[in-house]
């Protein structure tokens, strides 16, 4: 789990520039284990409104098109923040002690066949008590990355409930990708087989892949699949609409890689 302070706050010049957003704490900070990191709902709401107003700040000049909004969802601890940091910064930040507070975002441009697709990726708190805050964002989402943790069966079982929430709050045509994260873990650590994830994806007609924020397995692919599908639907100079995300994911998914630490467990 990670706090929003972990490299988050993508907009340059916004309230989070040059430091951690309010209500977050750094793991090295002795105060980070105390209750004062938990802000009240009003403060969280004010903070996310500030975040929403931030300009798209990737250092490039992109005046006309607004970025596509991508939201990362899933139970607390499945690795949403870690996956986003891996994708955005190409690094893995091992264990932190604090969960994401409320919601925060990062920007990233993905180039699809020469076209820049700008993604504004929202990292949500998996904890139940922040749900009402994050529900407000579903409506504006173009795509959702829905994660479970392959080492935690409960997070897999909860995917159906997450899909129910998505149906209730998100747009009908929102792009969804189902992700089984922590695929570097194997043996006794693993509680959910890849085939179970594949079956769940088929049941709900959403593309599925396993990822590892730790090793980087399929991390790029998960966001590229989203960007390609958004482009194919007409977001940013749409193409012929013939792109098939299921085929794309199937053809590009890499086999599992196992980290040394987990192998020895
Ligand atoms: N082995 C392994 N551990 C991971 C991976 N991704 C995340 N973790 C660990 O899982 C824990 C939770 O990761 P987070 O990224 O904070 O999870 P989260 O979903 O953002 O959690 P919330 O903010 O509470 O919703 C941390 O200790 C991470 O280091 C992975 O791919 N492999």
From TrEMBL:
InterPro entries to which the protein is assigned, alphabetical: P-loop_NTPase (IPR027417), Small_GTP-bd (IPR005225), Small_GTPase (IPR001806)
E.C. designation(s): 3.6.5.2
Protein name according to UniProt: small monomeric GTPase
Organism: Drosophila simulans (Fruit fly)
Cofactor needs: Mg(2+)
Gene3D superfamilies per UniProt: P-loop containing nucleotide triphosphate hydrolases
Keyword GTP-binding: yes
Residue stretches in coiled coil: none
Signal peptide boundaries: none
Family: Belongs to the small GTPase superfamily. Rab family.
UniProt gene name: Dsim\GD14951
UniProt-listed PANTHER family: PTHR47978
GO molecular function: G protein activity; GTP binding; metal ion binding
Gene Ontology BP annotations: protein transport
Pfam families membership: Ras
Keywords, comma-separated and alphabetical: GTP-binding, Hydrolase, Lipoprotein, Magnesium, Metal-binding, Nucleotide-binding, Prenylation, Protein transport, Transport
Keyword Transferase listed: no
Region (Disordered): 1-43
SMART domains on file: ARF (SM00177), RAB (SM00175), RAN (SM00176), RAS (SM00173), RHO (SM00174)
Catalytic activity annotation: GTP + H2O = GDP + phosphate + H(+)
Compositional bias (Gly residues): 7-21
